[in-house]
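Worked problem 6 (solution included).
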Amino acid sequence: MNSVDVAVIGGGVVGTATAMALLDRFSGLGVTVLEKENRLAAHQTGHNSGVIHSGLYYRPGSLKAQTCSSGRDALYLFCAEHNIAHERCGKIVVATSEAEIPALDALEQRGRENALEGIERLDAAGLRMHEPHVAGIAGLFVPQTGIVDYTVVTEAYAAVVRSQGGRVFVNSGVERVSRQSTGFVLETAQGKISCRFLINCAGLQSDRLALLCGVSTNVRIIPFRGEYYMVAPERRGMVNNLIYPVPDPAFPFLGVHFTRMIGGGLEAGPNAVLAFRREGYGRFSFSLRDTLEMVMYSGFRNLARRYWKIGLQEYRRSFSKGLFVSDLRRLIPELHGEDVTPGGAGVRAQAVDPDGRLLDDFCLVHGDGMIHVLNAPSPAATASISIGRTIAEHAGGAFNLNIR
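Solution. The predicted structure is:
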């Protein structure tokens, strides 16, 4: 049996960043990352849009706002130091009607409260200076936004973990957790590992892992699939960088948008449809276990009652390229159906409480010798270094670890 001080479960961007922060902060600590897939960043991390978020949208003072701001700057520095391709390109948020102006005003105020310097209010002419093909009456230019490949970032975090004496194992899903006098025994697909302390960064499986560890929590992960289209190479010139709509305050997602990718492509999307499999990236992906667990949870039923109309609209758009393109054309009227082809998809692990409310902030839950990250959707990748440091700080107090 291998023995380690801290086992970090989950080999995505948050798990590897947490391991990196633990090794940096505490002397002589043995840290192992356990990933159930055959590669790192296999799920949320490797299926996101690659945006380095500015921190524009998040409630001032929230953990999201705090960690996104500091994590964004730390990520830019990390990428520069490790020669990871990235770009601080900025984005525009576009209001296409007078009805959206109050929400745009509120967004501008929130950005200033979150200390985003250089935000520029744009009129229609100003929008076209940044994005000549966009249609809108007003907008915001947010210079802090950027792009990167988070799979590359995660691999770089893992390389730092290994260089500092930590270990990273793939094909090592945790199947059983049992307590012993000195901590825990984790039964994995590769054998048993004993650890003094455990940190759960399992993303789409985080609530199940918490229950496996005996931690009672009333929140559950509800998966939402986001589907993308790819813009044809000859039409990518219509978008210079990133173009976002003003988000609907009645809906917890940002709406379809245009994102230039660090590898040279241009994505359009995503939508947000309820997924019937936690790790299902296809339109017809289905898991009986995942679906039954979801519909039996009171929080899901309350959520469905609140958002069923929007949910049906999202499903219609999922199955109708015409509707999807119609929404995209609100931002760029020159775009047509033949200009886009189906792209990839991601699944967001969204924690929901029993009343059907989507948790708005990151959520860390403590147990005896454990920390569980039960809600870390976007902007978790952007904020990953800062989230990792926050978790390490929590661990120092909860686990009584020795600071370097």
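Discussion: The chain has a mean pLDDT of 95.
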